[in-house]
Recover the amino acids of this structure.
């Protein structure tokens, strides 16, 4: 693995964070090999094609474009040159239980007309809420997301005390909405984005008002070819820098000696040596399955995990042009939905759910005259007792989707399904080694943010680094790119310090 004395790095996992970290390191002259258990890169940002239907199996929304642009630039690449992006506006079409609608758009005149029809005076509330989101976004990006908190004093410093008031981390997001709206549907319309972090808005810090702000101010976008285009572009950047990828190559163990890691043992018995290792596999999986058992693995089990989802991928033999790209059905029993998911680890009786119709944005995602549909239904993660009846939960989730679509006039979908592929939390665990099948990794509760979130280097094994959803700064494709840069910078600095 080591050629002519060049420091070698093994990256475990070809997720977004792993690919980007590998590219950063290779661009600085390190010899980097990415080993990935699956047959293709991407991790949970996956894709598959069946009978001409193209499916993004993970994220379907390109949000926080300024972060993408900055992180691509840090890799010496131009995002606009590499991705063919189109803005999606309205970003979402929200449908409530009585079939009333709300289209979230950057057209403020249209927003005013819609909001005032729901709650007189609420448009001014939206403007004030977006102003708060602006402050939260810029402060959080500068002071929390883009910083590597290597010590407690970096985080719990006098300079950060004002953030307790400026970012409202101690206020619950949903409770904070009473400053801006009275109508529960409007409170829901501007807090549902918390589910991107696998969080309930009844638990999430009010800091996350930054997400609705960035969607409305900076836009929700769609790369031609789907979100998987981001993976393909990053792989090309990494390969151009000299990164080697080994797919279908599963790691059985990280080899350690004293306070250092020395390499990995693969499931086929081969051993690969390395100067340093970056683990992009799900962090709890690394502690519990790849490292020697110790107290840290047990601590990881006690942490809070994000929710999961049941996803349906449907090839349909007729188009449904009335379906916009992103439709979100929001249940009026908003709190009950999240209680069922977060506290009871199950599926709500009347679940909120999301439908993605990518062919509205890119006709190549479905064969001519046909439709590609993705339905995502949030559910609880796997319980420790294994008592959840996933076939029954999956059936209920499927029926909930058909019922919701029938409410907007689509009654014949079942008759036109060519095929179905579905993922439950069991699938997420098996395919991507996600502990508890939690699609967003560790939860983003107040006690699992910033320095309190697992850091980007192991506390005992000084040449073992981490990148990805369960590490700082958190889940999501844009933050995975930030995590990759922070991890690469630290590894390079510490490797130079040892040199």
């Amino acid at each position: 693995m080591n050629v002519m004395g060049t420091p070698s790095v093994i990256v475990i996992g070809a997720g977004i964070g792993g690919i980007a970290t590998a590219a950063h390191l290779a661009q600085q002259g390190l010899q980097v090999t990415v080993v990935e258990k699956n047959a293709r890169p991407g991790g949970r940002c996956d894709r598959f094609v069946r009978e001409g239907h193209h499916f993004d199996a993970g994220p379907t929304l390109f949000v926080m474009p300024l972060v993408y642009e900055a992180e691509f630039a840090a890799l010496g690449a131009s995002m606009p040159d590499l991705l063919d992006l189109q803005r999606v506006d309205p970003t979402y079409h929200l449908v409530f239980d009585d079939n009333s609608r709300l289209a979230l758009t950057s057209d403020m005149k249209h927003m005013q007309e819609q909001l005032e029809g729901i709650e007189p005076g609420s448009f001014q509330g939206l403007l004030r809420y977006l102003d708060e989101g602006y402050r939260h976004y810029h402060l959080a990006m500068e002071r929390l997301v883009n910083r590597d908190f290597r010590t407690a004093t970096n985080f719990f410093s006098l300079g950060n005390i004002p953030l307790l008031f400026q970012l409202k981390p101690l206020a619950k997001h949903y409770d904070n909405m009473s400053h801006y709206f009275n109508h529960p549907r409007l409170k829901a319309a501007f807090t549902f984005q918390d589910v991107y972090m696998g969080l309930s808005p009844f638990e999430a810090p009010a800091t996350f008002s930054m997400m609705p702000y960035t969607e409305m101010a900076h836009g929700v976008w769609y790369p031609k070819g789907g979100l998987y285009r981001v993976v393909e572009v990053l792989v090309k950047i990494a390969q151009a820098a000299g990164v080697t990828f080994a797919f279908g190559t599963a790691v059985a163990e990280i080899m350690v000696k004293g306070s250092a890691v020395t390499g990995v043992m693969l499931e086929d018995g081969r051993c690969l040596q390395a100067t340093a290792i970056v683990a992009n596999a799900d962090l709890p999986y690394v502690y519990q399955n790849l490292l020697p058992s110790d107290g840290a693995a047990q601590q990881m089990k006690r942490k809070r995990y994000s929710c999961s989802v049941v996803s349906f991928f449907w090839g349909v033999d007729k188009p449904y042009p009335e379906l916009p790209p992103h439709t979100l059905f929001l249940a009026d029993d908003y709190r009950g939905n999240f209680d069922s998911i977060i506290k009871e680890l199950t599926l709500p009786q009347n679940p909120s759910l999301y439908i993605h119709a990518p062919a509205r944005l890119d006709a190549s995602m479905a064969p001519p005259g046909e439709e590609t549909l993705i339905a995502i239904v949030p559910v609880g993660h796997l319980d420790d007792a294994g008592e959840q009846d996933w076939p029954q939960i999956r059936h209920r989730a499927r029926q909930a989707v058909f019922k919701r679509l029938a409410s907007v006039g689509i009654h014949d979908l079942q008759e036109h399904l060519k095929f179905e592929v579905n993922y439950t939390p069991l699938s997420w665990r098996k395919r991507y080694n996600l502990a508890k099948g939690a699609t967003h990794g560790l939860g983003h509760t107040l006690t699992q943010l910033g320095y309190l979130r697992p850091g980007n280097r192991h506390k005992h094994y000084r040449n073992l680094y981490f990148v990805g959803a369960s590490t700082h700064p958190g889940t999501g494709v844009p933050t995975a790119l930030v995590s990759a840069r922070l991890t690469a910078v630290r590894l390079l600095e510490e490797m130079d310090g040892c040199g």
User: Anything to note?
Assistant: Residues 122-145 form the longest helix (24 residues). The mean pLDDT is 93. The chain is about 35% helix and 20% strand.
